[in-house]
């Protein structure tokens, strides 16, 4: 494909037209000057005519070359014979000597004939300009201060005119405006003209004196010429290094990969004064496949194939190739011809992982020279820096992609989707958020396996991308849930029609594992600003509308306030909880329990946590209730039980005996398979039963004492301990609980909170401690958050305390740090305190 052309050639003049028009204009200008000078046809002394012709030929053949884009500006020191000829020849003779000398001196220079004609016309006109200025300053031509100054002034003005004419021709032909480098070139040309003209005037003075002193100017002139050539080489090197430094500032990691590639190509063209540049890249870290990018006069072209033999050889050998216009290699000549180029340089792109591609520059713009070894070394330096920059940018691109896109489908992920919604809302742009959930995806996934399920999700992603309007964002939020952000949807009706077209795009069947599957989905729509003024509320309301559509099989539902009565929200929460259980988004934290008699770690309580993707942290009290009412409590209990016992086994493997307590609902307890499940879990993980405690609320046990008692007895026979949670909030008594195999009583935190200020609460806690001890039960006080309550519990003889005074619930790895910082684990597998001074502190809830 071709895109972003740098500059259309339309409006430029061709080289032939530019040179032809320029030569005609210059010759016309010269003719006018000749007429103004008296159109003297006398050439002057033939001896001096021949000598100056040879001098012009010598200076023309030994120039200092300064490149200015396509053309090379030569500092020829021809102003020395010009200044001398102003005194020795007539205007026509001097113009003829210079023209013939220039033609002879440039015979072996590869310059097109039209340019030679342009140069001859230019030299004729500039010679006549110099003669005119000298005549104005010294009309009689006698040697003196006025004549010498006039000659120098004429030489300087002629040199400036010559430079301006060349720059004008370059502009007409290429459209290239003068730069800072052009200014430096002008100063060099004027300095050379001043020196050459001075030498010419001095030579004439010495010639007129008739002595041998003019011979002294020969070594002086040669020394200056050599010095100037060295200076010219240093200047070219300085310019090249300046460009290389500028490139190093712009070609660096962290840029967009495509922008970096094009910036590199542009810099390569400028650095080597080339017509075009090509970058071939093999597979990169961001997953980008092979591609070839070319920057030429007509713009940028990108193809996805690497079929160039020279580039392949450079990558294989890891060696650069310099192909000049004088190459004798037939294959390389054919390769250049295929590029319509006279010369080229190809270098490998090294990186930490090896050669990742090649960089080529083609067609030196200066027609008088080809690429050289110094150009190759410059390009190698650029390629070394570019290779590492490209690889690092590719790696950053991949990391950015992974952070913002779904690995499976390639769609935007939840985090990036939320960011984009928030950005549009912040700019007060009308948007519609569509949440789509597939129907019966779990059944397909269970029947055909996860591989087929993944294929189905990818198919859905492609259909949504094809059906979504331009400027929309399609995302996968997780599982079988997708989202589409519609920018400027055109109102509620139009948003609903678009959402329905998205649903309809799924209706075509898909074949998975030889089975034809129908895909259906439900979409909920919420609009900004009508249904929410922030990203979170828009997603919540779209979620509610989607579950309302799913529950009533509507296909599409736009949110309205009537849906937000709590019912739809609970339906959404239940569906999301079911998905969270399938994808194991729920995690288990552990809160330490401390034995008050000696500060020993008595165990931990396993507490489930759910970081909801859009609502943030959902409190267990909210979703546990929903789970109990919808049958999800059983798989939730199984998940927490298995995680907690597995963690207990991991601690045992480390030589630590840390009992774990798990909350169990009455629904789970009364399930006929629950006891067998508990037995299976402890047996599977190889954990002694007494290291597991099951906590049940007082009310749940007493509501169905007979059934609960039977289940508790069977659990106790496994060696598993039973704990009555939230004791004191129900209507039972310790006498009633004494008939059940209860090992532990936990005093509800509502009483513990009030101990420091409420005498009744303190009395209740004290009574429970004394009666429980009398009946042989262990007493645990939960919700301990201040030292006053802790001191009172110790005075009462309470066995174990739990609460934020000691620690908030922690993930296993942070609990290990807490144990290390607060307790010393003895070799006999008993937990001992690090010191009697209690290393406890009050921490904030969070």
Briefly, what is this?
Helices cover 53% and strands 17% of the residues.
Task: Explain how this protein is built.
The chain crosses the membrane at residues 17-36, 48-66, 86-109, 116-133, 145-172, 184-206. InterPro entries: Cyclic-di-GMP_PDE-like (IPR050706), EAL_dom (IPR001633), EAL_sf (IPR035919), GAF (IPR003018), GAF-like_dom_sf (IPR029016), GGDEF_dom (IPR000160), Nucleotide_cyclase (IPR029787), Rev_trsase/Diguanyl_cyclase (IPR043128). This is Diguanylate cyclase (GGDEF)-like protein. The protein has 846 residues and is of the alpha+beta class. The protein has four domains: 14-219, Arp2/3 complex 21 kDa subunit ARPC3; 251-403, GAF domain (Beta-Lactamase), CATH 3.30.450.40; 411-582, 2-Layer Sandwich (Alpha-Beta Plaits); 587-833, EAL domain (TIM Barrel, Alpha-Beta Barrel), CATH 3.20.20. It is 53% helix and 17% strand. It contains 29 helices and 27 strands. The strands form six sheets. An eight-stranded mixed beta barrel has the order 17-18-20-21-22-23-24-25, surrounded by four helices. Strands 1-6-5-4-9-8-7 form a seven-stranded antiparallel β-sheet, sandwiched between helices. Strands 11-12-10-15-16 form a five-stranded mixed β-sheet, sandwiched between helices. Helix 2 runs antiparallel to helix 3, helix 5 runs antiparallel to helix 6 (145-174) and helix 20 runs parallel beside helix 22 (674-685). The chain is elongated and about 140 Å long.
